[in-house]
Amino acid sequence: MSQSRQKFATQVDPDILASVRQIAEQEGRQLQALVDEALADLIEKRKHGKPRQHVMASYLASHERYGELYKKLAK
C-alpha cells in the first residue's frame, strides 16, 4: 500500500462515527487507520464476491455446532 495519502471528505452517520472513534480509542489507533482497514475490507469483499475465509470458517463451525437449534428456531 502506498505511503502517500490523499484527503477526501464525506459524511457519516453520527452513531457509526462515535462507535468507530470509540474503537480507535480502545485499540490505541488513529481513526484514519480504521478507515483504511474498513475500506480495504470492503474492496476485498467486493473483489472476490464471496465472504472472507475466516468469516465462512466461523459460520461453518457455528452451523456444525448449532445446526439443529437453527432448524428449530426457523420453525
What is this entry, summarized?
By secondary structure, this protein is mainly alpha-helical.
Using the CA coordinates, give the radius of gyration. Answer: 18 Å
Distance between the termini: 48 Å
The rough form would be described as elongated
Total number of β-strand segments? Answer: 0
Please indicate the percent range of residues in DSSP E strands (runs of 2 or more): under 5%
In N-to-C order, the SSE pattern is HHH
Taking the sheet with the most strands, its summary is:
none
Low-pLDDT parts are: none
Query: Which structural class matches the secondary elements?
Result: mainly alpha
- The number of helical runs is 3
Assign a percent range to the helix content.
Answer: over 70%
Average pLDDT figure: 89
In the residues, how many domains can be counted?
Answer: 1
